[in-house]
C-alpha cells in the first residue's frame, strides 16, 4: 500500500512540476514579446492629447466620443488649447493612417478585439 501511495505522490509531483514549467514558460514568452513598432513620425502637436494619455486612455476617449456623437449629436470636441476637433475615427486616422496596420498591431499585442470595424470601414479595407 505504501508503494502505491509513493507512486501516486510522485506522479502528482511530476504533474505539478510540468504545469508550473508550462505556466512559467508561457509567462516568460509573453514578457519577451516585443511591443509593436510605432506607426511612423506623427506630429504630436496635432494630436488631441499627449501621447502618454492617449496610450492609456484612447479606448475611453473613443467610447465617450461615440456616445456623445451618436446619442447626443455632439460631434465636435474642444481641446484644452481651444482647437475644435471632429469626434471621428477619421480624426485619428488622418495622422495614423500611414501604417494601415496601426490599430491592428497594438490590438493584437494587447489581445483585445475592438468592435469599431462593425460600423466603420477598417483601414485594411480602405482602397
Produce the secondary structure layout.
Elements: H1 2-32, H2 51-70, E1 76-78, E2 84-86, H3 89-96, H4 102-110
Antiparallel strand pairs: 1-2
Provide tags for this entry:
elongated, 4 helices, 127 residues, 54% helix, mainly alpha
Main sheet: strand order: 1-2
The largest sheet is: 2 strands, antiparallel
Mean pLDDT across all residues, rounded? Answer: 76
Fraction of helical residues: 40-55%
Low-confidence stretches: none
Radius of gyration: 24 Å
End-to-end CA span: 73 Å
- The coarse silhouette is elongated
Number of helical regions: 4
% residues in beta strands: under 5%
Helix and strand composition category: mainly alpha
Number of strands: 2
SSE ordering: HHEEHH
Descriptive report:
- This protein is mainly alpha-helical and 127 residues long.
- It has a domain at 44-99.
- The protein is 54% helix and 5% strand.
- It has four helices and two strands; from the N terminus they run H-H-E-E-H-H.
- It has helices at 2-32, 51-70, 89-96, 102-110; strands at 76-78, 84-86.
- It has a two-stranded antiparallel ribbon with strand order 1-2.
- Strand 1 (76-78) and strand 2 (84-86) form a beta hairpin.
- The radius of gyration is 24 Å and the shape is elongated.
- The model has no long low-confidence stretch (mean pLDDT 76).
Amino acid at each position: 500500500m505504501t508503494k502505491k501511495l509513493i507512486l501516486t505522490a510522485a506522479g502528482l509531483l511530476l504533474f505539478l512540476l510540468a504545469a508550473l514549467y508550462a505556466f512559467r514558460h508561457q509567462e516568460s514568452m509573453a514578457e519577451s514579446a516585443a511591443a509593436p513598432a510605432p506607426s511612423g513620425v506623427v506630429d504630436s502637436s496635432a494630436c488631441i492629447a499627449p501621447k502618454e494619455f492617449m496610450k492609456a486612455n484612447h479606448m475611453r476617449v473613443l467610447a465617450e466620443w461615440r456616445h456623445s456623437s451618436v446619442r447626443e449629436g455632439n460631434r465636435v470636441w474642444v481641446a484644452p488649447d481651444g482647437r475644435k476637433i471632429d469626434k471621428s475615427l477619421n480624426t485619428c486616422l488622418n495622422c495614423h493612417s500611414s501604417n494601415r496596420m496601426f490599430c491592428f498591431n497594438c490590438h493584437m499585442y494587447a489581445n483585445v478585439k475592438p468592435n469599431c470595424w462593425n460600423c466603420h470601414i477598417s483601414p485594411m479595407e480602405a482602397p
